[in-house]
Predict the structure.
Amino acid sequence: MALTTDIISEYSFAKSYGFLDKPGFSPEWTKVMRGAAEASMLFRYVPFLIELMKASPPWLVRLLDPNMMQLINIKLDQEAQIKAVIADRQSKNQSQKHKTIFHELLESDLPESEKTILRLAEEGQIVIAAGSSTTVHYLKSTIYFVLADPAILHRLKTELSKAMPDPSVLPPTHVLERLPYLNAVFKEGSRINDGASSRLARISPDTDLTYQQYIIPRGTSVSMSTYIQHRNQELFPDPETFNPDRWLGKDSSRLERYLVNFSKGTRGCLGINLAKAEIFLTLATVFRRFDLELFETDRSDVDAAHDFVSKAKGITHI
Ligand code: HEM
């Protein structure tokens, strides 16, 4: 979680939160993010609670849960950063070299109502949540599956030894993406980890949708389940087994269209390329440089038990 949060904060806000540099990699940050995700389920059904929380003074939050101050501090920090970007733009100073998402949003043709400090800060927090917990979930689970099967671990390490003769020199992402076995591990990780397993509802507000012989009237909420799709026996025999070989067969490329862990279409994952780069670089580094083994960890530690992916309003318009 420290790794992915540092990457997304540096990438989006030109400022790493530095969790990797803190003792034990800031384990309390993982608890904060998990707590926020759990609370979001409550907020989804009792939305006024979110307003109550936002209105609470920081001293009260510190009293109730000191760890939550990390979230408050990030929010305050982002508000200060947005104000600095606005001031920078007004004075035509533009001193910051690495543009942030706030620069892009402020320079865009979005209506002014979408550019308030509060609105932009909330967008910043969404990016942190969307860009950290997701990639963590993928990495921790895929690393487990590779370590749990000595044959898979051996094949991956052998391929990486050839591609990275010097373990301290990491090839660029596009080279790693072309390694057949690492690529197969990436796809199998995408399948078995699901991304968001709950239904991500969509509404077409203006036009009716046509699906096979059915007409779905505009305004109807439609959704599908990644969890069920990724366990379709006909497409993925023995679906509960982590098997990268299913992506190495002659006609395996036809399976790719059924992988939906990043969702698809206009509201699919905005961070897919960043996530892929993080995943390829991290898997290559971890398995090339370290000899890891599982410790007091088994399948029950990675199997899905719940899904806290949620949205305040629950539904996305397409
Ligand atoms: C393995 C990692 C990741 C997975 C599995 C994943 C999965 C998803 C999924 C399924 C959605 C669609 C949600 C919905 O339909 O409501 C989504 C949306 C989104 N993701 Fe990711 N994501 C990952 C990493 C990232 C990263 C690194 C970022 C960094 C910016 C990111 C940013 C976003 C954003 C901003 C959206 C909302 C897009 C929109 O509503 O238009 N994601 N992601």
The pocket of protoporphyrin IX containing FE is lined by residues 8, 127, 130-131, 134-135, 138, 195-196, 200, 261-263, 267, 269-271, 274-275, 316 (CB under 6 Å). The longest strand covers residues 209-211.
